[in-house]
Amino acid sequence: MRLAPPRHYPFLPPSVIILTALLALLFCLRNPLVYAMAPGFDASLFAVMGKMWADGGVLYRDMIDIKGPMIFAIDALGYLLGGFRGIWGLEWLACWLGLLASWHALAQLELSTRTRLGSLLAILALYGTRYYYGNMTEDWTFHLALIGQWAFITLLLDGRFRLFPALVAGLTFAIVAWMRMNNGALWGGWYLTLFVLWIIHNQWRSALLLLLSSLGCLALVGAPLLAYFRHYGVLDEFVYYSFSIFFEGSYGNGTSLAVGAVGLFRTGLVMLLPAFVLVLLARNWHWSLPVLSATLLGVVFTLIANSVSGHVFDHYDVLYLQLGLLPLACLLDRSKEQGDALALLCVGSVILTAAWLLAQQLGFGWSTKEWSLERVREVLGTSLLWALPVLVLVPLWRAWDVRSLTPWLATLAMLIVMIDNAWDGTEMGRPFNPAAQLRVDRVLAESQPGDTLWVDGIWPQYYLWTDRTPASPYLFFANVNPPYDVRERTLESLKRQQPKFIIGKQARFNEMIASLQKQPPSTQAFYLYLLDHYEQVADGLYRRR
């Protein structure tokens, strides 16, 4: 039994293959790794740990962070293929496959070429302008989500289980799940939708095979990792740093649905969803309700996943971006038809969303640091007030009948934004200031590649700029508080490794040394060790005596 009529798969001409490859290249040129520079915060840490794994280190023993192992496995593979630029190359490949898969998925839904190009460009332009660091778990999730969504749409339109798309869906889900389970919301929405749909239509065999394929892929990806951790005796450490630490209060500010919903608003998805719901309810496509269900479930699951930490970081918003592709594409496709009330609602929603996002960007700029909810509300509310006057364009759009011209103008605008983002990438990821550049130059000049380095703070970028290995495995940031003394364990590592240089914020060093008697014993021991065995040779740079 099939739930869909027989169909032909759209052909992907060479022009589309080349176009998506070039778009992926343009997008990924914002990633500093392509210039052998350092992406922001976590992304640099992941790259460094991937390098250490590739060089023979043992994960969760010789280098530790509170993430699942797949992000480090991907980076280790990339580093083996071509150093830090190899990591960039793998991400470009994933981005290209994601764009190519999305193009084919939208073509299977019989959405127009203009719609496909416009929706992909809009998502990439917003992503690159605001959120893209390169090599973040959210970045990899975005690329894999676009590939996985193609697989789910293919299964939906086929109306039955098929092995190849099921394996694509399962493997992309498994990679993300073993990277960071919270990032798997899109897969959860689609798996639940297809499973229930096939059960309702007595497709028990397809539903069961879909379930087994997802579990099988989780086991296929996870089994070698578990065997590795068991072999090196770090299975308990893997469980703790990948999962348990999030449930014992060592990380996060508690669960907050308001925090989880931030990305829903800041990406503009909340403004597209009402019109998207009406469009799909008004259509009699056999795929309308399943696509609507999967998208809305994905939004709900993402809201819950983003609520867990209680932190408001911009890169968490990315998990909503991949869910915005189908709503945006459906609205663009509907708005090019007759100018009835629903078409006006669609174009009005798209225009208002674009104006809202533009007002946020131009009026307030953007911060990659943690946001407060109060600041988020202020930016969103004020920007919406500034954006509302743009709605006057909606009746003009209908009166002037520029529906055929508007998509091409928007496409040109999005391309200009992406080119500007790529240009910005040539300046990103470099040493922060002349003092930082001096530290990097001295480390490179006065140490050997085999020497170790310790950066006391949240600047893992120095390990990339100098291509030196960290002298301690405790690389996670200061907002993680495990039930042991991290400073004490770090000092033990430094005594064993004896790094040639230690880098830190000089003002903090001065402050801690001045108030040393008031500090905990492990902190006192650390700074006494620093003063006894290292001499200051530059601002924030200490060399071993």
Automatic annotation (TrEMBL):
The keyword Transmembrane helix applies. It comes from the Bacteria. The chain crosses the membrane at residues 140-156, 163-179, 185-201, 208-229, 257-282, 289-313, 341-359, 379-399, 405-423. Keywords: Membrane, Transmembrane, Transmembrane helix. This is Glycosyltransferase RgtA/B/C/D-like domain-containing protein. It comes from Aeromonas simiae.
